[in-house]
TrEMBL record:
Pfam family, one: Lectin_C
Its membrane topology: Single-pass type II membrane protein
Protein name per its UniProtKB record: CLC2E protein
CC per GO annotation: plasma membrane
Gene: Clec2e_0
Classification lineage: Eukaryota, Metazoa, Chordata, Craniata, Vertebrata
Entry annotated with the keyword Acyltransferase: no
Keywords: Lectin
């Protein structure tokens, strides 16, 4: 679980479809990763290796992209391809049908952030 800017990441070595990938992340106390900055994307690309990885961006019926945490995607990066589920390939972010099998990328708050949230609830 490498860490970056308050988050920890898990890069799977197995493949599954998008929904099963999200369930696998939840079983680890995480979710399919949301990516909010170019620095974070650069960090992830450095660690992910050769495999394609699902992450937490999915297109709903109305054609808008949504993160697994329920927030709308603000289109700060281009998602190529015509599918409803996004993944990271070698060069960029693309999308494909959600039932195809790929590796997956989870993220969760790091231990310090989790401790701080418990110690100082808002």
């Amino acid at each position: 679980w490498p860490g970056f800017q308050g988050k920890c990441y898990y890069f799977s070595e197995s493949e599954s479809n998008w929904t099963t990938s999200q369930e696998s992340c939840e079983a680890l106390g995480a979710s399919l990763a949301s990516i909010s900055t170019m620095d974070e994307l650069t960090f992830i690309k450095r660690y992910k290796g050769q495999a394609n990885h699902w992450f937490g961006l999915r297109k709903e019926k109305n054609e808008s992209w949504w993160w697994t945490n329920g927030t709308a995607f603000n289109n700060w990066f281009e998602v190529r391809g015509g599918g409803p589920c996004a993944y990271l390939n070698q060069e960029r972010i693309s999308s494909s049908l959600c039932h195809t099998k790929k590796n997956w990328l989870c993220s969760r708050a790091d231990d310090y952030v989790l401790w701080k949230q418990k110690a100082y609830p808002e």
